Structure formats: C-alpha cells, structure tokens
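Entry under discussion copied across for reference:
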Amino acid sequence: MAQGIGRAFSNALPFFFSWFDAYLFAATILQLGLPVLIHQSDPVGFFEPVTPDNEHYTTMLRYPDWSFLDPRYSRKRELLERRDRLIARHPRTTFILPHVANWPENLGYVSDLLDRFPNV
C-alpha cells in the first residue's frame, strides 16, 4: 500500500509542489525556520532495464514492481529537476537531500547542486 501511495505522489508532483509551495512553505516552514527533507528519487537502476549490467539486477528480479522503467513514470532526471526548481524558489529554506541528493551515482551533479544552492 505505501508503495502505491509513493507512486501516486511521484506522478502528481506538479500538483503536489503547487500545494506544497502555497501552504507548507508559506504558512509553516519559512515562519518556523524548519529544514525540509525531500527524498525525491530511487536509485538509477530502478529506472533502467533489468539486465545483468544493472547494479540492482538481483533486487529488481526479486521485486519487479519497484521498477520505474515504464514510461508512465517520470524519469529520474525529471524528478530531480522538479525538486531543484522548488529549491531555487525557496533560497531561505534549508533543504536536506538524503542519499547524496538522491543521485550518488552522479557526484558531478551533486557537486554542481551544492555549488548552486547554499541552502542544501
């Protein structure tokens, strides 16, 4: 059930972020100065074909419904770009981005992200 909820939110992010911006940030986060933790994406292998070259091959064989390869799901880069636009709109909010900003396989991206956003 929780997995279904996560997938529903991942495909509704444009709406979710609009609501998130308007209510959560304006009414609560900025006023209280609370940091915001955003877990935006799963490992790269969850978005790639399930082949022996996939780092998460055995996991994906065991849990095939964890795959986001289906085109009905947003791509990893798109998910992270949405999150980054949200961060850019709120420079006074501190963001916590777990799992090396959800892209440990791309440290160049993470380095650029940290350079662009001192609030991360």
Q: What stands out?
A: The chain has one domain: 2-116.
